[in-house]
Design brief:
The chain is an alpha+beta fold and about 130 residues long. The protein has one domain. It is built from 2 helices and 4 strands; from the N terminus they run E-H-E-E-E-H. The chain has a 4-stranded antiparallel beta sheet with strand order 1-2-3-4, with no helix packed on it. Strand 3 and strand 4 form a beta hairpin.
């Protein structure tokens, strides 16, 4: 297994590209469920608005839901000597080694083993 630590080279006086960037996007089942529920709005609008109006409402609802899912996805980035996770940020000099936390342990850390001082950048669709 390779070391998950991402080195961030220093450059004097120049803005640096992100050494690592990730978006915590929803999983496929979440996309399917949200977009299906959104499309159902079009079905409810068909009776009063007709097929064309219902289709337009469905397309608009799906587009709004898709944009909302993407915009609500947290971004994780390492660059310019900083780690940014959602709205939080910390200088990389204050970080220790990076470790992958198994899903079962992460569930415990979000629940019964939670630390009130911890900042967790998470979304409900990311286990």
């Amino acid at each position: 297994m390779s070391d998950p630590v991402v080195p961030v080279p220093e450059r004097s006086g120049q803005p640096q590209r992100a050494a690592y960037r990730e978006a915590l996007l929803p999983s496929l089942p979440v996309w399917v469920a949200v977009l299906a529920v959104s499309a159902c709005l079009g079905l409810t609008a068909m009776r009063p608005l007709g097929a064309g109006g219902g289709g337009l409402v469905a397309l608009l609802a799906v587009a709004v839901a898709a944009v909302a899912l993407v915009l609500s996805s947290a971004r994780v980035e390492v660059g310019d000597g900083w780690l940014r996770a959602g709205r939080a940020r910390i200088e990389v000099q204050h970080l220790g080694r990076v470790a992958v936390v198994p899903a079962r342990r992460m569930a415990a850390l979000r629940g019964r083993d939670a630390d009130a001082r911890a900042y967790l950048c998470q979304r409900p669709w990311n286990p």
